[in-house]
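Hey team,

Filing this mostly as a record. A colleague (T.K.) asked me to run one chain through the structure pipeline before their review meeting, and I want the input and output archived in the tracker in case anyone asks later how it was produced. No errors, nothing strange. Just documentation.

Input sequence:
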Amino acid sequence: MKTTLITGGNGGIGSAICVAMAQNGYKVVAAYYSAEKEQAQLWQQALREQGVSIEIVGGDVTDYESAKNMVGEAVLKAGPIDVLVNCAGITRDTTFKKMKPDEWNAVINTNLDSVYNVTRQVINDMLDSGFGRIINIASVNGQKGQFGQTNYSAAKAGLHGFTMSLAQETAREGITVNTISPGYISTPMTQAMSAEVLDAIVGSVPVGRMGEPEEIAHTVLWLASEKSAYVTGANIPINGGLFMAA
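Output structure:
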């Protein structure tokens, strides 16, 4: 049984990934922001009542030492990490002319620096075992940009640069590194938007609806499998046709 660690595991997309992997035979560890311990425990208990068993570990993915301790705890609970899903992310949206340094730094640190901080803790064990799957959750806005999101779009675009470079370093070692770039996904965060905003979003998507977190989870499962060993350095868009590129 392989072990997977999902950062931001108790979030909207992260939760769907955790459930899908647990239901498909993985030992699952969800990483949460340490200040949200109570919420994470309630989330864990709710899943347990549904028959889904998931370990949780707290930490701050923006801090290297905290990430190191977090991964160490995950390994103690579930064993070496075979599959890492970097899903932690935040937004601090505003136009660039109004953007404050802390709004830039918070997003870059959480959405991009965290991927170094966490991946660095698992890569050597993957190299030693000759198997690994690293899956980075980016965004359609890292491909096309978005008004008011220079920080978020820069971080998500950087994720795929990280993916392509690390994929080349590890391709002969049984490790694949890939990016998934979701479009507008139906999560508690997006569902809290006004009806007018939601209608405008849906109207901009060619398939005429928002995506479901389970659709992201399905792709994660595929990338995590041994059957996807020839896929590395890829960026897989799941955006309903919102952005298309050759």
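Quick notes for T.K.: The first strand starts at residue 3 and ends at 7. The chain has a mean pLDDT of 96.
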